[in-house]
Design goal:
The chain is α+β, with helices and mostly antiparallel strands. It has helices at about 5-30, 35-45, 130-150, 160-165; strands spanning about 30-35, 50-55, 55-70, 75-85, 90-105, 110-125, 155, 170-175, 180-185. The protein has a domain at about 40-155: Uncharacterised protein PF07273 family, DUF1439 (Bactericidal permeability-increasing protein, domain 1, Super Roll). The strands form two sheets. Strands 2-3-4-5-6-7 form a six-stranded antiparallel sheet. A three-stranded antiparallel sheet has the order 1-9-8. The relative contact order is 0.18.
Length: about 180
């Protein structure tokens, strides 16, 4: 005949199991990730240099430098840039881009949302105005297009808990010079 436990032992055991399960769920169901500019920089630097080339023109971006402005809560990036069109001199300089952040839960990735590129400096003083305008526009649109398509940072999906949590964004903000991502169930 099987030994029966008194009801209070079974109830106590059920309470302990539920308590431990609840504690584990609480601890594992939320994760906050803090990303510094240097962490984002490290991730995106692996993707550079990037560029585009066709019969009429080519451009190239390299040496990205990521920064986070605490005053505006904007993420910015400065890149080295060069462009040339068929039969014209190569233009070199620096291009900056900034914007707010967007999180794509299907990929667990951070993107620069609606990036706005600004010409920081380009060596093109001896070029005609029309060529300068085309080069500036080509570089700005090229960098904006690239950043709409490519993430600044991708969360680690090798951790099975992170793979589950990354689909559920609780909040995304820039605070104290860091990007703060809260994920949870």
């Amino acid at each position: 005949m099987a030994k029966r436990f008194p009801p209070f032992v079974l109830i106590g055991l059920a309470i302990v199991v539920c308590g431990i399960g609840g504690l584990i769920f609480f601890v594992l169901s939320k994760r906050t990730i803090h990303l510094s500019a240097s962490e984002i920089q490290s991730e995106i630097s692996r993707k550079f240099p990037v560029g585009k080339s066709d019969l009429a023109y080519r451009y190239r971006f390299d040496n990205p430098k990521v920064s986070i402005d605490e005053a505006t809560n904007q993420v910015s990036m400065m890149v080295g840039a060069e462009a040339s069109a068929l039969g014209s001199k190569t233009v070199r300089g620096h291009l900056g881009v900034s914007g707010s952040l967007r999180y794509d839960s299907s990929q667990g990735s951070l993107y620069l949302d609606q990036p706005r590129a600004l010409i920081a400096d380009l060596e093109m003083a001896d070029l005609p105005e029309k060529v300068r305008a085309v080069a500036s526009s080509l570089l700005a649109k090229g960098l904006e297009e690239y950043l709409r398509r490519e993430p600044l940072y991708r969360l680690n999906d090798k951790d099975s808990l992170m793979a589950l949590l990354r689909r559920n964004l609780k909040s995304l903000r820039v605070q104290n010079g860091e990007v703060v991502i809260e994920l949870g169930l």
